[in-house]
Amino acid sequence: MELDYTIKRSAGRRKLTITVERDRSVVVHAPEGTSDEKIQQVVESKRKWIFEKSGHPQKYRDLPHPPGKELVSGESALYLGRQYRIEMVGTELHEVEFVQRFLIPAARKEKREDALREWYLGRAGEKIIPRVKVHARRLGVDICGVRIVDHRYRWGSCTPRDYVHFNWRLIKAPMVVIDYVIVHELAHLMEANHTARFWNIVRTQSPTMDKARAWLKEHGQLLEQEI
């Protein structure tokens, strides 16, 4: 069976790694100058692993309904692993407020999805970035910066120049899941591939790793929804 993959070369990258995205696409991250022949050789050596990853019955199953939903009073939205009621309120509010429920101003009714997304982005920056710095200190790794980004299928990533990126959608997940994803990406600054050493680092810093991974497998598709 033919194996399709995308190659992304980077001048700052030292090792070749392969990732299988949640949409089943295969991406090869390679140091600049790595030949196509060398990349194909590595991909072929990982063929069995790639097909096992892309065929995961939970992580990659299709959504039973289209992403997103209409935001109206009585609906709910995820935040830190829990569903909270949404209420449209006709007050002087100009932006979303959270008081154990989401209050969305009537003035933003026509663009309420954008309003809630802006709120999520703000909370992601407030809660995720400080946790990254805490875990970086504990692991003894230096990072150049943290960015909250918009990806549909990746929860986090790190760059060859030691920047770490995290998906704003993570703010919908429990803190135990957020901490696991943070540790996972920071551990890649110490060990590029998913070796035994890598998983030992992650498990030591995130002892609830198995619980977090199980939550992502079961509920990850909810995070992928726009809202």
UniProtKB/TrEMBL annotation:
<keyword id="KW-0645">Protease</keyword>
<dbReference type="InterPro" id="IPR053136">
    <property type="entry name" value="UTP_pyrophosphatase-like"/>
</dbReference>
<protein>
    <submittedName>
        <fullName>Zinc metalloprotease</fullName>
        <ecNumber>3.4.24.-</ecNumber>
    </submittedName>
</protein>
<dbReference type="Pfam" id="PF01863">
    <property type="entry name" value="YgjP-like"/>
</dbReference>
<dbReference type="GO" id="GO:0008237">
    <property type="term" value="F:metallopeptidase activity"/>
</dbReference>
<keyword id="KW-0378">Hydrolase</keyword>
<keyword id="KW-0482">Metalloprotease</keyword>
<feature type="domain" description="YgjP-like metallopeptidase">
    <location>
        <begin position="14"/>
        <end position="219"/>
    </location>
</feature>
<dbReference type="InterPro" id="IPR002725">
    <property type="entry name" value="YgjP-like_metallopeptidase"/>
</dbReference>
